[in-house]
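Can anyone check this?
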Amino acid sequence: MTSPTTSNTPTPASDVPAFEAMTFRAFLDLLAAKTPAPGGGAAASAAGAIAASLARMVVNYSFGKKMLSQHEPMLRSAFDRLRLAADLLMKLADEDAAAYGTVNELSRLPEADPRRAGLAIAQAAAVQIPLAVMAACVDLLILMKDLTATTNRQLRSDLGISAVIAEAASRSSWWNVFINAGFITDEKQRTAWLAEANRMRDHSVELARDVEKACAA
């Protein structure tokens, strides 16, 4: 899975553990807490990880099927790629919470505070990270489209659901790009990021419809 770089992502200021190390209940409670982060960006990325994992279950149920034996090498590759996608998306959820937490912290400082020098980097990361989530979701949906013809048809509802969730994760991440790009002072860069987000949002919608149509046939 490919995605825009997030190498300049700020380190979280808090001691909150990685989301993947939490129980699902703990993550939900943290998401509901009256704190700046995690918020919508982390929720969107975590949803993408759920989509990847659900699609991986579909692949798991497709191994060893005589009528799908010719697709076994592709399925093995897909199984590994979906695990990597889920790992990436959970990492991006952490990075999103870190970036937004840093933006929130630095923006509250007095204008003369030297620590505000890092604000522009944090603001850029708050755009780049949801763009990376969108890119990962597009990759997921492309793979899911291929899987419609190579996986166990008894699991087609699960594959369709995974596509719906991946599309939702991509469209949800678009909102963070749209809002956070408003803080980018470089107009050329802001316009380029918004155009990229719009393209990936539209592509996600198209791919998800294709997967749903194939699963319903």
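Reply from J.R.: I decoded it. DSSP finds six helices and no strands in the chain.
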